[in-house]
Model the fold of this input.
Amino acid sequence: MITRTEIADLLKKPTLNEDVTVMGWVRAWRSNRFIALNDGSTAGTLQIVVDDSAFPEETLKQIGFHASVGVTGTLVESQGKGQDYEIIAKELTVFGAADPNEYPLQPKRQTMEYLREQGQFRMRTNTFSSVFRLRHALAFAVNQYFHERGYYYLHTPIVTGNDAEGAGEMFRVTTLDPATPPLTEDGTVDFNEDFFGKATNLTVSGQLQAEIGALALGKVYTFGPTFRAENSNTSRHLAEFWMIEPEIAFADIDNNMDLAEDFLKYLINFCLYNYADDLEFLDQRIQQAEKQLPAAQRRPMPLVEMLRFVVENDFARITYTEAVDILRRSKPYKKGKFEFPVEWGVDLSAEHERYLVEKHFKKPVIVRDYPKTIKAFYMRVNDDDNTVAAMDILFPYIGEMVGGSQREERLDVLMQRMTDMDVHHDELDWYLQLRKFGGCPHAGFGLGFERMVQFITGMGNIRDVIPFPRAPRLADF
Ligand code: 4AD
Ligand code: MG
Done:
């Protein structure tokens, strides 16, 4: 049996002048005398003082960057600067050496692209271990938020027969041999012969099934992986990402917006209060990196200040029509600086969203009532018959963080919308039945989990906030 004290516990309750055993990975090894040890339990490292005359040369030689070691020694107040405590080593075990001539990582700043290729090791860096601790924190806070408010966690399927968003960007799930699939009489693939007896795909959203839950349990949420085969090689898109989707009965678009704003602020607050060390570390890291950038490319506010700012201020709330007006009156529009058109009826592009958030309002913005032609079939048609009760929440650096809506609960209107948007009624018969029997006004939204992790950690690329990113031509590990 192995007995050790975790560094987080030790720093919280330092048992001075007693012997302790700690185990972890070497984050730094200075002057053949000082080890900065981290065991993942906290952002902080513990300094180990090694008297090199007291240990065999053979052992000392094995202590390298990210080697794993165990140390038993006396915890004392540190004589040096930079840490309150240190351990004077009495026993030293190298569990796993990491030969610096061969180990792919080095104790210096390395590019995110390079670290991404070293996915088996990147979590040992200060940056990535902070990112993944915060990712955990957020996942925990999501469940805590909803649990405390009486929502039920509903596990919606990953393999499904329907396209919730109607965007057709799905990964097919099949056991048929692509070289010799069974064919129907008219020469198309016969999915009747497939594992599920029909064409299936990985889910793009758990919303439609969450609606079943909401219309029975009142308030539910799903939180699971979703998959989109959109060929977007951007710093905001993944092919596999996690989404949080609450769905509430007896609620309209205003309830939905209030819930989303409160929820996002709760998540940020949770991290500010409970993970201050990690946030502080990431904040410093970004500020260091930004020193090399021209002022215009730096963040308007350091990370932690920005997080505080977001929780302390109301989100701006505007309609899509107002957003288009603001954009058409904007300087970049007048100077022809936008790449994509700004026209009523056309979806906002990332550049427009970022202008609204970063330049015009300088805070998160909720845009509601989008043209019905550019939004999904399930969104409730407004009285003007041109717009739907949709809402997107736009964030600094990120753009679209949340997409949601009040759902169309009127059977005839929903059927008409499905016909207009080429969504087959028979494939979603169960969805229509929810309107036919015991339906009610209801609403919900989807939060892109990785985008939230990105905002909180300040990481520039979404591939660096999920342990093993999947994107076009990328499915390592
Ligand atoms: O706006 P979306 O497509 O909404 C839905 O899927 C609804 N069914 C949600 C609902 O009402 N229950 O996606 C929701 C959010 C987006 O706002 C964005 O944050 C994130 O999911 N998202 C992605 N994140 C990473 N990579 C991608 N490819 C993403 N696509 C959407
Ligand atoms: Mg959306």
Summary: Residues 124 and 325 are 48 Å apart (CA to CA). The mean pLDDT is 96. The chain has two domains: 7-105, 126-158+242-462. The two ends are 31 Å apart (CA to CA).
